[in-house]
Amino acid sequence: MPKPFTPKVVTANHLLLGDVIYQTRDGWTRQLAEAEVLTDEAHADLRLIEAAQQTGEVVGAYLADVDTSNGTPAPAHFREDFRAKGPSNYAHGKQTELN
Amino acid sequence: MYTYTDFDAAFVAERNRQFRAQVERRVDGSLTEDEFKPLRLMNGLYLQLHAYMLRVAVPYGTLSSRQMDQLAYLAEKWDKGYGHFTTRQNIQYNWPKLADVPDMLDALAEVQMHAIQTSGNTIRNVTADHFAGAAADEVADPRPVAELVRQWSTDHPEFQFMPRKFKVAVTGAENDRAVIRAHDIGLRILERDGVIGYEVLVGGGLGRTPMIGKVLHDFLPEEDLLPYLESIVSVWNEIGRRDNKYKARIKITVHEVGLEEIRRLVEERFELVKPSFAGVDQDHFARIKAQFEAPDFVQKSVGPFNEKYNDDPIFRAWADTNLTAHRAEGYSIVSISLKAHGATPGDATAEQMRVMADLARKYGHDELRVSHEQNIILPHVHRSDLPAVHAALKQHGLATANINLISDIIACPGMDYCALATARSIPIAQEIATRFDDLKLEHDIGELKIKISGCINACGHHHVGHIGILGLDRAGVENYQITLGGDHTQTAAIGERAGPGFSADAIVPAIERLVDAYLDHREDRSETFLQTYRRLGMAPFKAALYPEAKSVAAE
Ligand code: HEM
Ligand code: SF4
Q: Where is this region: Disordered (chain A) (predicted)?
């Protein structure tokens, strides 16, 4: 049996602001919870290619594993957790700016 | 201090104009990211985890009050009100927006600063002893040498696309405060029979393959400096490994080719290169030197210092810990700690920058320095002014008396900011500092250098920390490896790995056990952690770090 595919999202940094963004079905969001969850490998690869083509808006798109056990996508690795929240030494970045 | 010539100013203005146009073309879509990235890196602009990061050079760590004020202005106007001072005497802004960066660069140019060659495979910001021009133990001020090297290397046509980055550091004293042995080239100014020359070290570096620099020339005549440097860089530029970026630094070339052979190649190249210099560099060097004349030191009574020292224990503790001997009578070098317990090492708010700038203006002959240990230095303060300086620092959270102590930690940005990180560094530094402050032990422990990096690149100098901490990602969890016995000075050494790593929760208790072992084993208070380690070796420290292992072995 092939290895089960870990669900993913497409994420990148925004060209002008530099902050973390996630791909939705029809655009981009700054909240991981709103990202489009990709559960099929071929589809995920296709969505990444589509994202990477938008060079006027996004930088460095890649696929990041997510944990969907609570229904909405959550970071599967601590690096993505920091990207989704911001640094731990100051209340800067998404942890304060999204509220 | 060095002031730009018309040529310098025009060069920086032209670079800024070009970069502004490059940003515009990136934003309107005419440049792709692949095309733009090398251009932005040439101008010190990175893309990090949460935002862009602009790295601004503070050449040989020297700043005027006006420049420090301008750094504060940038922090306030285009960042989140602070900046991060780094181990290579740069300042990093963690939150600029792409479209603002050209304005930031123009604002820097107003005070003769820039971000050129703070990134990319070029010769980077030339660093120097942060006590340059002030230290009592100095043969000569290293800054004119650093400025000469900076001018030679900036936009040097042959050295813009090298196998890898290239870092040069200079010291004018036997006591190495510039970590010259961990640089691609380290220079030490020497005097022999009244003649000045340079000891040239090559092939030092940290990163994944740490190496201590080796002596390539033990006494290079002053006038041969630039042609000799050009020969070294040119030889490496030709034979350095471009096939593998982990093997591209000159330390690997020296290791693979051998010091003798490198010396032969450099000397051969030198014969070709030397005639092209024809002495113009020496005329120019003389003009640069004239700009680093010592300030007019004043003579006055140190009475106010002595009174305060006798009356106020807080002032006394600060004076005992944060002051260094100055070469001029009645003067001291002040180290301002950017390591308040629990704060982010190396960070200063805009307000703190302005306070330091004001103090330099009022009491410090208008000079400040950035140290590679991520602190700020007022190099020339008369002792009678120290009570006033201390009082102002205290009001702004800048009077922590911990220079060279366990909470004076170097920490890289780590996973809190850096896209390459494998773990966080800042919170570990914060926790260690807070813990030992609570224990009220740090003055008793004495000199102890902890240095923390958030990945194998070693920007936090962990290899040369008495205690080094390296953050790694072990199966998706932060894990911290300890090295012991590193040394960043003239007796430089790479630390030795103590054993398996510790989780984020276990690392601070592990450091505490190490320190307890030191306190138990030292001969007396005058024996530092490093000396005890050198006398006893790894065993007692290992036993303290891994008590379970010992009890298993005993069974
Ligand atoms: C945050 C963005 C940063 C990035 C992307 C970065 C990247 C790197 C890389 C890739 C290396 C390894 C180079 C090699 O071995 O060839 C390195 C080394 C180093 N970096 Fe950084 N760094 C960053 C921040 C810093 C900071 C904040 C400092 C100062 C505190 C710093 C100072 C150094 C030093 C001293 C070294 C090791 C010396 C050497 O080059 O051998 N870097 N950095
Ligand atoms: S050591 Fe690693 S984590 Fe720390 S700043 Fe350098 S590249 Fe980033």
A: 70-99
